[in-house]
Amino acid sequence: MRSRAIPAVALALAASLILAACGGSSSEGSNAAATSEAEIVIGSTNEPTGLVRNVGGSSGVSQTMTRNVFEGLTSVDVDGAVIPTLAESWDASEDGLTLTFHLHSGVVFHDGTPFTSADVAWSISQAIAPESKSARKADLSVIQDIATPDDTTVVLTLGRRSQALPFYLASVTIVKDGDTELTTDNGTGPYRFVEWTQGDHLTIERFDDYWGEPAQNVGVTFRFFKDTTALNNALLTGDLDLVIAEDSPDQLVQFEGNPDFTITEGTSTTKQIWTFNNRVAPFTDVRVRQALYKALDREKIRSAVWDTYGQVIGSMVPPTDPWFVDQANVHAYDPDAAKALLAEAGVSGLTFSLDYVAGDNEETIVQLIKTDLAAVGVTVDLHPIDDATWYQKVYTDKDYETTLMGHVNPRDLVWYANPDFYWGYDNPQVQQWVAEADQAPTEAEQVALLRQVNETIGLEAPSAWLYLDPQIRVAKSEISGFPVNQVTESFYVADIVRAG
Fold first, then answer.
1. For residues 48 and 62, what is the distance between their CA atoms, to the nearest angstrom?
2. Band of the pLDDT at 26, cuts 50, 70, 90?
3. Do 82 and 203 contact (CB within 8 A), yes or no?
4. What is the pTM of this model?
């Protein structure tokens, strides 16, 4: 299934198999036996659409490169926690308006160039520049000034307090001062980029001069597949060590009970969303959006894709976020109520388009949406497009009526406070709550405000949230150390080892 790292990575599920604890950060056994440093080969259906970073769009580049090849001042680890990375530590002034980051010394880029505070200043300035396409641009705009008093210190002056800024900074991968292309392969991470053969594979190798803990394998090759049948065949025949995500419970049958493979079930933050362009009629009318949402049998959609797995949701917030409030039944399946709302809004004979990136699961979902809406007198024209077209037409140009997409990013509720985001939801009260939450003096106050946001968008339905993906990986039994959960778009590979 397609997903976006604005937005998302399509992840998956499992059951009654060999289950890893959902709270664990990686598969067990990485230190239990002698290990080999051999290369690890990983299968994925989420190929990058390009290697440009620090922009919204395909999650494939974040999945393969973030934390592995490129790093930020901070990172979001496999459990969703913000951890120091290129910044060894940071301090906040008493009023919260100044953050001072103390950088690791002795860090070099992969070409041997020393990493300094100037690189940090450049990278952040590009992320908040007027022409920036960073998905976190609005969140980072709180930064008013960037000072570099010495090579290992960066001082950020803020226009207001921001509790979430260390989290947002994890989205800014640090590049060399003056790199305007953002496509160079020159990071500071535990791996160095080797090659990307589009449509086939991307290879990274261990960087021996890495400043931190070295990678436990000599390198990783990500092999890309168009569908999970071919992906799993490659795993069965020994061409792969690990599949990042299964997209169907049917794919697990061939691995169940086989001692040569391990199946792990973890948590994800991937929300499957059918969203409306809130800028254009009739989606400017909350009653129309609510009607379309009530017309959907989301339980049927979820079970058609995941059988007994996954979770129906009714807002952007997954249960792993502290401001989660269950909204699944706010617009429960009710075709009669949907018809009544459409009549109240004075809408009849409604026809509109649905743009989506074609795939097996996407076809299942959009056909069910089309059928459900036909039952309430609404016609949906299905328009399959490719990844690149989706990014340009929907995300960049906002030239669409409705679209289907998976969003993987953690804590992305705040994008509903950005009227310039691709779905164009513009609610001043939500914007005020999000602003106040970020400036809240305590975490409890922040959580309370964001719960109000969660409940409001759940009621007003700027999008139709379908379900939360489960997360399933399958690996050869001798492979361990991989993340079990997927609560960030990055797939960190430095701890993966092969027994023997």
1. 8
2. low
3. no
4. 0.74
